[in-house]
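Appendix B. Extra example for self-study. Work through it before the problem class; the solution is given directly after the inputs so you can check yourself.
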Amino acid sequence: GAGGAGSDKPAIDLYDIMSSEHLIPILSNKEVQETLRAHLPDGNVVSGSEKELRESVQSPQFRQAVSTFSVALQTGQLGPVLAQFGLPEEAITAANEGDMQAFAQAMEKHYKKSNEETDEKKSSDNTMDTN
Amino acid sequence: MASGEWCLIESDPGVFTDLIHGFGADGVQVEEIFSLDDDSLEQMKPCHGLIFLFKWQQTDSSTANMVKDSRLDEIFFARQVITNACATQAIVSVLLNCTHDDLKLGSTLGEFKDFAQAFDPQMRGLTLSNSDKIRDVHNSFARQQLFEFDSRDEKKEEDAFHFIAYIPFKGRLYELDGLQEAPIDHGPISKDAEWTDTARPIVQQRMQKYSEGEIHFSLMAVVSELRRKYERELEQVLADPALTDDERNAKTSHLSMLIHEEERKRESYRIENLRRRHNWLPFIVELVKAYATHGALIPAVDKAIVAKEAEKKRETDKKRKRI
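Solution. Structure tokens for the complete assembly:
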């Protein structure tokens, strides 16, 4: 038989993740919206609304880019590129090894907000809304 | 032989329409055709050419009815010398053979035609692939590369696509296939019908053949700019004294809706092309960071891996069953 081939880690497409149930709550976050909006194509459109972000993420052109990104990440070619974005060392190492799971863990270790932090944020947001 | 790189571009009516405008030609647009029934073809009137696209594979193409006489000097037919240029080649083939008043060819294509018309099909093909102006426009529709890298998994999308154009020319139907030596003559166009009616059975036969062979294909039409067509019709309706007010209102609102739809389409082409040319890398990095910040990255990756493994298992099982 063709031994070995079966033991390869299956390549995953990050786009499948980005169109998952997590996307809507993340895109409705005002801070995220602001950060992402800065990286939309110039002259894109009108308002830079949440709808526009959602449409961009759902566009075949974006999907294509994410698929390329996914392949590059899992073939270990993305490390040097990601280093330019100032990602944490551990995430770069995982990217150099093409290890998506290790990459995800390194990213969360560095960026994930603790629960208290998020709760605090929420309550302060609420106060602002009621004022 | 052919100098310079030609990028692979997407087979999409928006890309093709903007490509035509990028060449400096005006008055026409490209529409995708999903059905060859009367209604669909009626909407495409006046149609100047059909472009049939499919994944290229070695076929037993017949060389019957090849044009070998002096018509070779009249019909602008160029042989395809490089693969990636085929979208441009098909469009240029239709435009350079079109004599309809609606089409304004513009200087780039006009000069190219004047220059290359005297050559044989092989030399025309070389001249086209060496045209810096035409190549630059073509390449401006290439997908933005995130960065240079070896895309092993992208092979499936790099399949060579091949384009064939069908055009009416001086009362006869021709097939222009850059991989053939000459245009193929499909005979006279019936005088009291649209030329597309003559083309329909021939195109249908091809579609049938490819459907059976599970070959992916699509069909595009180069048509007069629809917005201008509807505006002309609107003027006629408004000036027609034979219409009752109700009839006029109904027609006016229908045409206004169609015009609005064309404007919407034009705007979405514009945005799609912006997206196509955009470097999405910083956006993706920020989105991945946002996933990490919200603690959504690990569960999502895990879930995707489980799904992928399940898919892989299904495929292995399928293979086993076959053995």
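Self-check: The longest strand of chain B covers residues 47-55. If your reasoning did not lead you there, revisit section 3.
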